[in-house]
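Hey all, quick one. A colleague (J.T.) asked me to put the AFP job into the tracker so the inputs and the structure tokens live in one place instead of scattered across chat threads. No bug as far as I know, just bookkeeping. Sequence used:
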Amino acid sequence: MSTRTPLTRFLIEAERAGQINAELRLLIEVVARACKGISYAISKGALGGVLGDAGASNVQGEAQKKLDVLSNEILLEANAWGGHLAGIASEEMDEPHPIPDVYPKGNFLLLFDPLDGSSNIDVNVSVGTIFSVLRCPDGVTEPKTAHFLQPGTAQVAAGYTVYGPSTVLVLTVGHGTHVFTLDRETGSFILTQRGVRIPEDTQEYAINASNARHWDAPVKRYVDDLVAGRTGPRGKDFNTRWIASMVADVHRIMSRGGIFLYPVDAKCRDKGGRLRLMYEANPMAFLVEQAGGAASTGHQRMLEVQPAGLHQRVPVVLGSKNEVAVFERYMREG
Ligand code: AFP
């Protein structure tokens, strides 16, 4: 008998264990199937006519790539008819997307960044999809923005899919973080790691160092001490990586530890930060905490931030929990 555990079996066993209900199981299956479609579209590269700019901008004022638009459409179409959702929010859409009246409504809200890291697509570097699932408030059938503005602690599921050398889905339903690898021969996501544990300490950090002149003093001091290595107050050498695809940088941390930082700086202060709370920071924070790591704004646990806007940005630090605590100490010391 096969010892391989496909995603479907994993989710049925989670339902039997009372961790999820049938509607949430269907939701996750549908999102995973949509991610397979995105993976296949991306893998065509220049042969698929899907590279380059779409010729429009999103709510963030950022130029949309063709694959941003296509990924968003794949996720919207896949989730419209299943009856598991009351509403959808996306980085690519200003307002929440209603479920068409011709379809039944469900009890969940789905939020996603359909293609994170899209500035890397045209140079064939890993990109990904990030998603977050919330409960729709009781009695609400036409959810408005306010109904989505729940803190990260309210998430019932979160995940990302990295479209890299292999396509990997990383998922939590609140009982650990688990890794599934796409078997392209069968089209199934197969469980390849049950119960990720992020090492509590690290010697690897991820930050965009070109922003150094814009950093606040505590951030500058923290990074300078990392660079000083064993000759400085940290007493050990550090290595650095910056892929500029959050999903890829976070997946490295899931795989071997590390700390990821996108602090607020003079360049992005007026926006509140670079990364978005609802569909980037919160799902990643849920996944990282469920894997034994930590995620914060530098001052506050990420999952406890009370959202004020659907596309709100926040400073982000996450990863190996002892290193996140060291960064937070630098921030307290000023
Ligand atoms: P894009 O989706 O516009 O490529 O942005 C990716 C991202 O939101 C996140 O995935 C990266 O960690 C971060 O931005 C990279 O930001 P910089 O381009 O400022 O390094």
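Adding what we noticed when we looked at it: The chain is about 30% helix and 25% strand. Helices lie at 7-16, 22-43, 66-80, 145-148, 217-228, 246-256, 277-290, 321-333.
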